[in-house]
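User: Can you predict the 3D structure for this chain?
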Amino acid sequence: MKMTVMAALLATTLGGVVPAAFAVESINGNANVMSGSWRGASDVGWFYTPTVNYVLTGVDTRFGSVDGRTVTVEIYDELPINGGHLLRSGTYSANSTGFAGAVFAGLQLIAGEDYFIGFRNVLNMGLNITDDVNATILPDDLYFTSVGDSEYYTRQDATPEFRAPILQLHAAPEPGSLALLGLGMAVAGVLRRRAR
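Assistant: Here is the predicted structure, written as structure tokens:
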């Protein structure tokens, strides 16, 4: 008996294999990287507010220039110097000027809540912001760590481009969505069998 593609997908879904993460939101993903480098800032970050609930599994960015160093991506529930708690972090090797980033255990994000996304160890790397005229400008400032300090501090004179990071946020399908997908494929399989 031949297994149909739908049945194979159903077996994969019900067998516990979760489909790969996908980019749920891109912030300035197609924008040009601004020239220059992060001079005097060893860490940079921004507040991000999701518009829908989803499980975050990774964050990517594009730097104008890289040197293969290890960069740490961090997600906080508030700015660290204001008592924020580290919710997730991951490291990756910055060896490509294309999108790259860290993957971590899923983190449930709530629509309308503020989260802080930071990148550590970026001193003298190319910028990961854009000055494109149609760029998405985040409502809050860039926050950064001066060399020798340990936390992110606000940039007082943040011009719009410093509030225009280049980010891709990745999500895993929620278990409820997978169950609905499996049910839909099962029904489609039964209907197809009856049609034969």
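Residues 1-19, 177-181 have pLDDT under 50 and may be disordered. The domain at 25-171 is CATH 2.60.120 (Jelly Rolls).
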